[in-house]
Design brief:
With about 300 residues, this protein is mainly α. It has a single domain, classed as Glycosyltransferase (Alpha/alpha barrel), CATH 1.50.10. Helix content is about 50%, strand content about 0%. The radius of gyration is 18 Å and the shape is globular.
Length: about 300
């Protein structure tokens, strides 16, 4: 399960492809019964028209005094200390919810700068994670190299929001350098690459880079085109969740529709969605299911299925 970072996947299937229209009321009951507060607030914002402020406050609850985020915000990394993955997730949720908070973001960038990878960027995981419960794939790397997925996803969302910061400038250079020599990416690495290329300001350079590395998704069989394929696979919507996703051009409309059908049919009897990777912790499973339920519904709505 090398490089198996779980911050960019999509909910796995459930009841089969008979159910085409998700039941929002059932999802609401699931979120109230099972979802953690953060994801309950996300659901209330996106599907019940509630205020954005509770989402911002829920994200802030995972913040540490050093400005980074931890405390199992990333459900498979249950370290209370600050880590790059929960910091990335915090920024992503703030952006997604239009709950962007300049103070929280500035402090997070300062934490990233103090803890940057060798040469710039963000490491995959800090060594402090080993002292706390964590999924087996969360292992620190010797030498503190930059992680394509963490660096790319964090840099992407910061660029999307027009942030300027010394950490971001160095991380951007790292991403261009690594993308320029990318030949055998892992699926999760491509999630970071795509987020970066979708948001970095130099659009001409980004398009040239995508033209060079985007086809690797198909050529290296990183994507599973069969929506019914079992196991820990990465479907079309993992790489291109929205109609305007950069990688959507790689897939024909019929394939995208088949994966949307599968996602729409994935609502379980309890009203929520699940996921297709190792469920190593009951607490992590509960946390992920709420998060993935909101993500699944957002993807369906973005594609006109809700």
């Amino acid at each position: 399960m090398a490089d198996s970072f779980k911050t960019a996947g999509l909910a796995a299937g459930g009841m089969g492809c008979m159910t085409k229209t998700p039941d929002l009321n059932a999802a609401a009951r699931f979120m109230s019964e099972t979802g953690r507060l953060l994801d309950h607030r996300r659901f209330q914002l996106f599907f019940r028209g509630e205020s954005v402020t509770p989402v911002r406050d829920a994200v802030a609850a995972y913040r540490n005094a050093d400005g980074g985020f931890g405390n199992a915000l990333e459900p498979d990394l249950r370290c209370p200390l600050s880590q790059t993955a929960p910091t990335e997730m915090a920024l992503r949720v703030l952006d997604e919810a239009a709950a962007w908070d300049a103070g929280l973001v500035q402090d997070a960038c300062d934490w990233l700068q103090r803890n940057e990878a060798v040469g710039g960027g963000a490491v995959a995981v800090e060594a402090s994670a080993t002292d706390w419960p964590h999924a087996p794939w969360w292992q620190p790397e010797d030498g503190r190299p930059a992680s394509l997925i963490q660096t790319g996803q964090i840099a992407g969302v910061l660029h999307a929001r027009g942030v300027t910061h010394p950490w971001l400038a160095r991380a951007t250079d790292v991403m261009w350098e690594q993308i320029g020599r990318l030949s055998e990416p892992a699926p999760y690495q491509m999630f970071g690459v795509l987020k970066f290329l979708e948001c970095v300001p130099d659009r001409e350079r980004a398009q040239r880079a995508f033209d060079a590395v985007g086809p690797l998704i198909l050529e290296r069989k990183l994507v599973e085109l069969d929506p019914e394929a079992p196991g820990e696979v990465h479907g079309v919507l993992s790489f291109a969740p929205k109609p305007d996703s950069m990688a959507r051009v790689l897939f024909d409309a019929a394939t995208v529709d088949a994966h949307l059908d599968k996602l729409a049919a994935g609502q379980q009897e309890d009203g929520g969605w699940t996921f297709n990777w190792l469920q190593w912790s009951a607490a992590a499973t509960f946390d992920w299911r709420g998060f993935m339920t909101v993500d699944a519904l957002l993807t369906l709505r973005a594609n006109g299925r809700l």
